[in-house]
Design goal:
Blueprint lengths: L1 E5 L3 H12 L3 E6 L7 E2 L3 H10 L2 E4 L9 H12 L3 E7 L10 E2 L11 H12 L3 E5 L1 E3 L5 H7 L14 E3 H11 L5 E4 L8 H11 L15 H6 L5 E2 L2 H7 L8 H11 L2 H4 L12
Parallel strand pairs: 1-2, 1-4, 2-3, 4-5, 5-7, 6-11, 7-10, 8-9
Helix pairs in contact: 1-6, 5-7, 7-10
Length: 278
Amino acid sequence: MRLLIFGQGYTAARLRTHLEAKGARVAGTTRDGREGTLAFADTDRVGFEIANATHILSSVPPAEGVDPVLTTYGAALADSRATLAYLSSTGVYGDAAGAWVDETTPAGTGRRPARNQADADWLALGARVFRLPGIYGPGRSPLTRVASGEAHRVDLPGQVFSRVHVGDIVSGVTLGFDAPAGAYNLSDDYPCGQNEVIEHAARLLHLPPPPFVPLESLSPMGRSFYAENRRVANGKAKRVLGWRLAYPDYRFGLRALSAITSPVSAIAAPLAASHDQR
């Protein structure tokens, strides 16, 4: 395998490490070409990698209303013989009032039109589109937020979310490279309210649960987190990819993270998100 990753952020960097350990040759882009990656705007070098890749994955979200990968390199990708993949969001399903959604549910109704369009455009290119819910893992989990004092609870009965451990994304994407083109939900087996997860993280850390705060007190981004309510089904990925979850619910995932987290790292600030991260 010769893989090009657009946007070597939190999830994609772990995918790179996993595949390189299996002998793959991997190149990744970031905006500034840091830490041995290619600068996204270096069209000559990126173009060379596109032409020679057997597989291409984008984890870059839309920016300023457009998908920067498709805007800059869409023509080259359309001409490529590589297997294409895209890390999308389950947000494309929009609000389901707490009901289950799967890949047969109409997409494109989410609150972010640019993400809806990018999802559709990658599917039109014949990509494997992996729709992801909330991502957690080492250095980026409810444990870090509770330990740093940044976690909170919001009293919204009936509000549920889906989530997935980054390790399970890596395994799902790896299997998906050899699967038919189309959309795949990569989520765990247990959608539930965010308060339940935060309270469990506090118990693992032997800390009191964080306080409740009014929804209106959150930032616009924080409020938008609660604007949609759905449960994400993962049956297609299990059936078609043969995907098996190492962390079927948050309790398995947080317990594993707690076991590898030292007292020093437990109180470290969470990693800042960036446009390169997914």
